Amino acid sequence: MKQRVITAVVLLALLAVVVWQINTPVLVLVIAFLAAVAANEIMRCAKVENTFISVVATGYAACVPFFASAKALTPWVSQAVWGKVIGAVPGVVYLIALVLVLLLAMLKGYAYTTFEDVAVSVFAGALVPFGFSVFIRLRDMFQIFYGLICALATDSGAQLAGMAFGKHKMSPNISPKKTVEGAIGGLIFSLILNAVAMILYNRLADFKMDEFAVAVLLAACLPVSFLGMMGDLSASVLKRNFGVKDFGKIFPGHGGVLDRFDSVLFAAPVLWLMTCWVIGL
Question: What is the pTM of this model?
Answer without folding.
Answer: 0.86
